[in-house]
Amino acid sequence: MAKYAAIPQGYMTVGEAAKKMGVTVRTLQYYDKEGLLSPSAESSGGRRLYTDKDFVKLHQILSLKSLGFSLEDIKKRLISLDTPADVAEALTKQADEIRCKIEQLSETLTAIEQLKAEVLQMQSVDFKKYADIIVNLQMKNEFYYLLKWFDTETLDYIRSRFDKESGLDFLERFQRLSNGLLQLEKDGIPPESEECQQLTGTYWSLILEFTGGDMSLLPKLMEIGSSIKNEPGGQSQITGAYLESALHIYFSKLGVNPFDGVSQNED
User: Fold this and answer.
1) I need a labelling partner for 142 at 20 to 30 A (CA). Which of 32, 124, 149, 253 fits?
2) Rounded CA gap, 112 and 134, in Å?
3) What are phi and psi of 116, to 5 degrees?
């Protein structure tokens, strides 16, 4: 570090630098001690002297710190500023980090707004259910909004039967089947067609997989099916009368009616 008898032009004392950089003198002293930002020079009287280059380097440090990086991480990410290419590289990396943080914050904000909407629709305070919704939002499960319609007993059943991996796998298969049935309906394929009946059989197998063969769960599933008709976008996954007709034909061919004795409230 160069030493000067007086403060030459282009240099600042630690107090002047702190004021210009919008930090405290203590912060600059701490960064010097930690090896993050040492002053460019020192006066003969031992006063630390800073330059505009130090200001740019501090901008790197503060930018990375605002993104949640530890001081050790920042040390590893700092780039020398000796050439225009160095400065450009430093700014490019800062911009990339900021864009990443913006994306993360945007996802967090979306999740908060979605949870808020679900909370306002629920009729009581239920933190366990809130936690389930948050987990499903983090999993990017597009069916997260269904959770508010399940009672505590049914949710406990789901928690005991599915973990995160198996739950996502089940939902992905359910979505593919729902989309397939919707497409058949849009294409005008009749419910009694072989193609539709094959998908309907697989769909019913998923229902049995979900319930474990416990038909006492069917009324709750039917109730949820009715409730989500009022959900924004809910109909995109529900085939309505088309699926009901396809299931009726499917069960008629099997000679069984699993809905015997099952009642459902009318809308």
Assistant:
1) 124
2) 9
3) -60, -45
Calpha distance 27→38 (Å, rounded): 12
CA angle 153, 156, 157 (to 5 degrees): 85
Per residue in 29-82, pLDDT (tens digit) is: 999 998 888 888 887 777 889 988 888 888 888 888 887 778 888 888 887 767
Residues in the chain: 267
For 159-173, the pLDDT digits (tens) are: 788 887 887 788 788
Strands 2-4 and 41-43: parallel
Residue 32: name the closest of 57, 68, 63 by CA: 57
Name residue 45's amino acid: G
Strands (E), 81-136: none
The whole-angstrom distance between residue 250's C-alpha and the CA centroid of its chain comes to 39
Residues pairing with 4 in the sheet: 43
Alpha-carbon distance of 109 to 6, in angstroms, equals 52
